[in-house]
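ugh ok so i messed up the first submission bc i forgot one of the chains. this is the corrected input, ALL of the components this time, i swear. 1215 residues overall. if the numbers dont match what u have on ur side tell me asap before i send this to the collaborators (the ones from the other lab, u know who)
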Amino acid sequence: MNQTDGTLSSKRVGQRKSSTGRLHVSRRHALQIGVPLLGLSLSDMLRYEAAAAENERPATRRSLIVFWTDGGLSQQDTYDLKPDAPSEYRGMYSPIQTSVSGTVVSERLVHQARVMDKIALVRSVHHENGIHAPSSHWMQTGYFGPTLARNAAQKPSLGSVIAKALGSHKPPMPAYVTIPKSEAFGYQGAVYLGKAYNPFEVSADPNAADFKVPNLSLPAGLSSGSVDSRRTLLAKFDTLRRDIDQAGVMDGLDTFKRQALEMVAGDQMRAAFDISAEDSALRDRYGRHRYGQSALLARRLVEAGARCVNINTGNWDHHNDIEKGLDEHLPPLDQAIAALIEDLASRQMLNDVLIYCVGEFGRTPRMNGHAGRDHWSDCFSVMLAGGGIQGGRIVGASERWGGGVHERLVSPLDLLATIYKQLGVPLETHFNDASGRPVSIVGSGHAIHELL
Amino acid sequence: MFRFQRKARRLPIRMTSAISLLTCCIASLLCESANSQNVQSATEKTTVHFGTEIVPLLTRLGCNSGGCHGKATGQNGFRLSLLGFEPGMDYDAIVREGRGRRIFPAAPDQSLLLLKATSQMPHGGGKRLDSNSTEYQMLFDWIAAGALSPGKTDPTLQQIDLTPETQVLTAGSTLQLSVRARFSDNTYRDVTSMCVYQSNEPEIVSVDTNGLLTTGTQRGLAAVMARFGDQIATFHTVVPFTSDASLLEVTDRKLNELDKQFGNSTIDRLLLQQWRRLGIVPSEPADDATFLRRATIDICGTLPTIAEVNEYVADQSPDRKERLIQRLLNRPEYASLFALKWADILQNRGAGYSTSQQRAGTTLFAGWIRDSLAANKPYDQFATEIVTATGSQSENPPAIWYRTVRKPTEYVESVAQAFLGVRIQCAQCHHHPAERWSQADYYGLAAVFSRVGRKGGFADAEVPTDEIIFVKSSGKTVHPVTGEILHPTALGGRVLNAGPYDDPRAAFAHWMTAPDNPFFARTMVNRMWAHFMGRGIIHPIDDARSTNPPGNPELLDALAADFASGGYDVKKLIRQITNSYAYGLQSEPVPGNAGDSQAFARYYPRRLTAEVLLDAFSQVLEVPTVFSGGPGKLPLGTRAIELPDENIPASFLDVFGRPGRMSACECERVDAPALTQALELVNSAEIHRKLTASEGYAARLAVDGRSHAERAADVFVKVLGRPAQPEELEAAISFLSGESDQAEAYRSLLWSLLATNEFMFNH
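and heres the new structure output, hopefully the right one now
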């Protein structure tokens, strides 16, 4: 990782030990990691000290693939069935056995049932909001913040935190990608981390026959020959002395201009996004639908250097006739997740890629009068696999018919702490918000040790 | 030493002298390697006091920092007040809460507090304390003596004195600071080894945990803060650029020449004084073409045209600079550019509302700001009209400020940051960690706005728009901790009395705009200085505090005094700054000022801001950007610097750092480089459209009958504001002659110049 790509780990950027053992952050690197040079607070200093200890730890190779269930996935029809409850709680699906003795899931999750020994479930996630937007912010960032009336994002999403803290494995591949676009009510962005850590949006359906990434394609009429001559001319004319800029902005732009030209004219990015290079049988196993091909693309992107790929799925907001909605969306999601797990395992990559399926909340344990389920954040489920997570584990439990947390309440920040820990982002990391106040990436959260 | 202390614990009378002795030992050890500063010995004392000894110790060890137990939620159930500003709460947390298990007077070394801090039991914060350290012993003694609570008669900390307060340091040297604390019972204690230290420029001077300073790789000004308990003291230093005799002579000669050359301009004189202090040589003056481009961008957010370049370069009259600046200040683009800056600061925000309903408001407010600037409305009047605005937001545009600024916290933080240059946010929840601001200051300022009333207005599910702002006859603000009702209070000062028929905001505005106000004029001159000089005299510009001192206090004071006494004339202020010698310097460093980024010994380049950059593309390529403005499109030819709010879609502006107007902080506008910016240049539809438009400059160039040489020469002046160098012209001609597709060849030439740093930066 070079020093000017702007997407560097907070624990490594621009720091050096002085003879006194105190870590310093240079002006140039302060710009890149967003630390105001003046007014470094004590907690900043402690953070750097903590980061210094982290320096000894080898950098992790791990990446994250998120299946975001936009709108809220029903826990009782998927990962936390209540077969003994009355029918209005039980819902329409029967339980099926999985590869883990004693663990049952919904009959619509036949594929994941097969690989349940590699999957961990948390059945006791809890937060305290039942509205899409604030809840999305809570689950994406770990923090409650915006309301309907004041809806601006306040904290960075997990993908942006990972992008800022770890950077891309192989620039110019972006560190953080969303497929097809960013969702979650606008809360998948970087906010005060800086726009450089917003996701790169694929902006196209990988299952489409003519799948092509608009941002990586040259505008109509511009040939790659022209790009080459522009690159040559730029090198000739871009001769302003670089030492006039002590702030590192010129160096950064230079690097990014080279990368951008490389992205649109070079082969690396095009190759990474060229899903047609995959074996047709494998593409079939993932499923010839948006979720399946998105999962396959996500695997290609993490192989090519991305740190966090977020696949937005749904919408899962099934207030009416939930069976119809789930019958349409669940089987392809199930197939995509299971195929990804099996594919990664067969490539010896499962330990390097953490898979996480989550939405803003779950759905009411009792069905409503429209054969649907409404918003429910008191107790819902998420799925994790790979990335050092112990497969086959179940953490926490809901009450007998669902509803509340029966045991082991898990907060949104606990989930983020678990993910950051597995990816090697130091949990002590703080980033300064717009007012200069250092904000912890995990706040009161703790990694879920039962999963590790 | 360790054993002796343990014994001393059982002999309270001898203990005192043991600790004094020990302090002296440690102090003298610390001083060994340093210039031997005279460290005061401790005076007589008998008990370990919680407030004056234990709390500062917790601060020094980092226990109560914002990342650990000091954060609002505490850490693992143990919560201390941030940096020890609430000793009573800390005492309860340590002695009473947690079922009293944190201390164990019968066997102090078994106290959880000590077992955790020494990492004998697992501790998330790691080992903070050695069991044979003085700090450990102090905690041990305090627990052993029964963990005495802070008593009413306990001496309280009055002040800390740091010596030396200021000193010039030569490169490669060290200096030991010494800190003495004075208590209410008139005792003194050396607390050098008990303080927390921070340098604001660690690359210039770093400081270790015991107050030993070491100069770093860079030269310049630095300040080092020492904190003990709730007191702060600051050491100021200069590390001169030149130390060896021969260079010093050259520097002196150069500075003496300038001394003779300079007239009586305050800025020139005070910068020269600073350069002498720093032993730094300024760069050479920039050439005319560079200065023209620089001033046109900084004042008008616009590039000079080919005609303007030719005319200015040909002008050899001695007052050409002054006349240029005056011309620029009279152009409408001046008002547009600075209206954009103020609309950011005043949070004229479009996002979050129903667009069609609110754009009328943002447009009105933007227009009012622009008119005020064009008319050169005195700055005190401008600020007063905003802060005291009443009436309908559709009829009195400054009242629109109250649309995005709605809550007590927003009133306080916006006013403090926009007009007083102070970041007071911290004091909403706790005492400011590096300033004197307390929650009483914060809520006293909030009380100024406690009678702001609102009625009417259109509201969908979001924020109301088009309200009527009025002054209620009553309204109160209470201190969140003490519950006391707070009177409207000027920041750091007096209570502003206002009867039921008076507007407390008027009294506040009167205080704020008085010529002797310590914040108002200084904040504005610093803001404008930073705009033109690339860095504030106080940096960051809206973070004035004793621990973040101005780099050139005499200059800041002189500019502020002149601004306030001269009727808050903004254009005059701009003329003073842009006519200064320093503003006209090259950005290229010379031997003797390499590495300077705070003495204004050269012009600091910066990337054109998002709006100015997009407009620059439009201007060169002669293809305006099409902006959709809510219900319809904004008139064709609308420039990005003229947009009323930030909610007008333009991905170019977003990736190049257009701020979201979420706060009054100019820091929201960022110039951090990003891959998306480069992608925008390389393959965005907008840049491609501007290059390929049939009526644009590129298309016209291709069919222009002139020679490649003539056309290429024009292109350089148009894009870069200067004539091409011979080798550049040659390269361009050889490229153009070798291409068969002339239109594409000219597009490529233009693109490659537009993508240079020379174009994208003001330098």
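quick check: The CA atoms of residues 151 and 193 of chain A lie 18 Å apart. that seems consistent at least. The radius of gyration of chain A is 23 Å.
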